[in-house]
Design a protein that fits this description.
4 strands; two-stranded antiparallel ribbon; 9% strand; 186 residues; 2 domains; mainly alpha
Length: 186
C-alpha cells in the first residue's frame, strides 16, 4: 500500500498533454525527459507514484512525488533536467586568458628554469608571477590549453594546434598557420 499523495498532480492543459505524449514516444529526446514524461502521464491516468516509477524502470516513488510537485509549480519545464550541482568555476575568462598568455610566451631559461613549457613549469611560472594564479593546478592548466586548441608536441612542449614555425633555406623563420586545423581535429 502506498502513502497518501501529499501534493496530487494538477490537471494537464490540452497542450501540455500533447507535449508529454510526444516526449514520451520520442526516440530523439534525452532519456531522462522521456522517463519523466512517462511518469507524469502514468500519474495522470491514476497510477500511484510507486506504479509510475515501476512503469519507467525506476524504484523511487519519492522521485516521482518530487517530479509531480515540480510539474505543479513549473509546468513542462519539470521534464527538463535541472542544472547539476557542484562548486562554481574557480577560474573565469580573465584567469583563463592569463594562463593562455603565459603559455604563448616563450620560456626564458634564466628566469623560468626551462626551455620548453610543461604543465609543471607553467604552473610554477603562473604561481610565482606577480599577476599570477597562486593556487592553479596542472589539471586546470591542461584543460584550459586543450580547450583553446593547444596540443602536446613531440618536442615535449605545448603548442597551438595548426600553428608551426618553419625555417626557410635562407635561415629565416616564418610562422605557418593551417586554416583547416580545427576541421581536422574533429
Amino acid at each position: 500500500m502506498s502513502r497518501r499523495q501529499k501534493e496530487p498532480l494538477r490537471e494537464f492543459s490540452e497542450e501540455e498533454h500533447q507535449w508529454l505524449r510526444r516526449i514520451a514516444r520520442s526516440t530523439s529526446e534525452p532519456s531522462g525527459h522521456v522517463v519523466r514524461a512517462k511518469q507524469l502521464l502514468a500519474v495522470s491516468t491514476g497510477a500511484s507514484y510507486t506504479e509510475a516509477a515501476r512503469v519507467t524502470g525506476r524504484k523511487s516513488n519519492d522521485a516521482v512525488a518530487q517530479l509531480v510537485a515540480r510539474f505543479n509549480r513549473e509546468g513542462l519545464k519539470a521534464v527538463e533536467s535541472k542544472k547539476g550541482s557542484g562548486a562554481p568555476p574557480t577560474y573565469g575568462a580573465a584567469e583563463r586568458e592569463r594562463i593562455l598568455r603565459e603559455a604563448r610566451r616563450a620560456p626564458k631559461p634564466e628566469t623560468d628554469g626551462t626551455a620548453n613549457w610543461s604543465l609543471t613549469t607553467l604552473r610554477r611560472a603562473l604561481r610565482l608571477a606577480e599577476d599570477g594564479l597562486p593556487k592553479v593546478s596542472t589539471y586546470t592548466i591542461g584543460a584550459v590549453l586543450k580547450e583553446a586548441g593547444f596540443g602536446w608536441r613531440q618536442t615535449r612542449s605545448w603548442c597551438q594546434t595548426g600553428v608551426s614555425t618553419r625555417r626557410r633555406k635562407d635561415g629565416a623563420r616564418v610562422q605557418v598557420i593551417d586554416v583547416d586545423a580545427e576541421a581536422k581535429k574533429s
